[in-house]
Amino acid sequence: MKPTTKKSTSITPHLTVRDVAQAAKFYETALGFTTKLLLPGGPEGKIMHAEITHGSSSLMLGPESVARGIKAPITAGTTPPVSLYLNVEDVDSVHAQAVKSGAIELLPPSDQFFGARTSIVCDLDGHQWMLAEHRTEVSENAMTKKLTAARLGAKGQAAEPAAKAHLGPIRRPQRV
Question: Residue range 150-167: average pLDDT?
């Protein structure tokens, strides 16, 4: 694969993964990314760096370095402090493909108060992805009203804590 001459986007996430080549292939199959660069030179002949794209966005992948304290979330046993929001044309089919490819479903596809249909999956290395299909424009005022109504519940009283979050509880993935 030829290296790209295009510079990366102005802010380009760099994800730490256990196996760069495997992660790039997963993102292609599961989420529709295109691999632009696979750079060899890692330990044991492995790929040490990848650049993948989705639409006009770039994402870089690099391997763990446990000796330096750089670990994928699944290795570290933590929930990542950042999630990735991926706009797609059909959230239901991309979600199904991601799960078929090995992602863990954290939240199934559902319509949201802000005009999108979304779902959340966790990839093979523990990174969380919100998949989003834009459905309709919703004004800030309308979003505020819908969110307030959801938090208050049908009787106009504060909902139970678990019901307050518009997306519901998010499960932490467990991998063996």
Answer: 54
Q: Cα–Cα distances in Å, from 58 out to 50, 64, 106, 144, 162?
A: 10, 20, 24, 32, 35
Q: Decide: 63 and 19 in contact? Cβ < 8 Å.
A: yes
Of the candidate CATH numbers 3.10.180.10, 3.90.1150.10, 3.40.50.300, 3.90.1300.10, the domain formed by 14-155 belongs to 3.10.180.10
Output phi, psi for 111, to 5 deg.
Answer: -80, 140
Instruction: Tell me which range, 88-97, 137-146, 167-176, is most confidently predicted by mean pLDDT.
Output: 88-97
Q: How many helices (H) and strands (E) does the chain have?
A: 5, 8
Which spans in 18-139 are helix H? Answer: 20-31, 73-76, 91-100
Whether the pLDDT of residue 47 is over 70: the answer is: yes
